[in-house]
Structure formats: C-alpha cells, structure tokens
Write a structure and sequence with these properties.
single chain, mainly alpha, 20% helix, 0% strand, globular
Length: 166
C-alpha cells in the first residue's frame, strides 16, 4: 500500500509538471521575488506565520526562520533553504522539488505527504521530523535514515518509522 501511494504521488507530480494548473493563491504575491529581492529573503523571519500554499519557487531563503510556521501546501521549488530553521513547522502536503535543505533545522517538522524529490538534506537536523507518505528518492531516504531519531510531538510518529528505515 505504501509503495502504491508513493507511486500515485509521483505520477501526480509528473502530470502536474507536464500540465501545470494556474496558481490562484492570493497571498503568494507578498513573498515572491516580484515583491522582495532574493537577498531580502535571506535570514527573513517567518516564524509562527500562516503561509499556506505560498509559492517560494526559485527563491534564496538561506538561514530564514520558519520555526512553528504553518506552511502547509507551500511550494519551495528549486529554492535554497540551507541553514534555515523549520523546527516545528507544518509543511504537510507541500512541494519541495530540487530544494536545498542542507544544514537546515527540521526538528519536529511535519513533512507528511509532501513531495521532496531530488531535494538535499546534507547535515540537516531531522530529530522528530515526520515524513509519513512523503515522496522521496531512495538515496534521500538512505541519507535521512543515517541520522533519523525521535518522535514528532504533534503527530506521535517516529522519524525512522516515517522514513521506512531498516
């Protein structure tokens, strides 16, 4: 069943990439590069903010603070979140394709059912992160399982179990 859901999510991703749907999110203009330059978003404090379905595609958010933010359904497509703080953030149902999470603090973050294909997590802190039904490549799972520990306090899910670590 788990493989079927992952295959279904990957198929949906491919369909959306081939036949994109126009975005209707009214709040996304507040944080897109058309409003802020890429350098303005480095170290930006989004902690505790509600940013559901916001589009951060191709944005440099290095060292940005998203701690305890509600970023459900947000898009971080080809973005840089190196060293960012996403501790306690809810990124469930999000899209993080080709995104750099290297060195990011993902402690107790919720990535349930997010698409994270081809993103990198080198030296990321994932204690208590929940990746249940997230779409990840095998090499990503292997990389994350090397340091997966803890239980997510919101979902009650063990990080290693959510990744399917052996």
């Amino acid at each position: 069943m788990k493989h079927f859901l992952r295959l279904s999510a990957l198929l949906l991703l491919l369909i959306l990439l081939i036949f994109p749907v126009p975005a209707l999110a009214g709040s996304s203009s507040a944080v897109t590069p058309s409003t802020y330059s890429e350098s303005d978003l480095k170290n930006k404090d989004f902690s505790g903010k509600v940013l559901q379905s916001v589009d951060f595609a191709r944005v440099d958010l290095a060292e940005a603070n998203f701690s305890n933010a509600d970023i459900r359904g947000a898009v971080f497509n080809a973005s840089n979140l190196a060293g960012a703080n996403l501790s306690g953030a809810d990124f469930s149902y999000g899209f993080g394709y080709l995104t750099n999470f290297d060195g990011a603090d993902l402690t107790n973050a919720n990535f349930q059912e997010s698409i994270l294909s081809f993103s990198t997590f080198k030296d990321a802190i994932i204690n208590g992160a929940d990746f249940t039904f997230a779409v990840l490549e095998k090499w990503q799972v292997k990389q994350l399982c090397e340091k997966a520990t803890g239980v997510n306090p919101q979902t009650g899910v063990d990080t290693r179990e959510s990744l399917g670590c052996k």
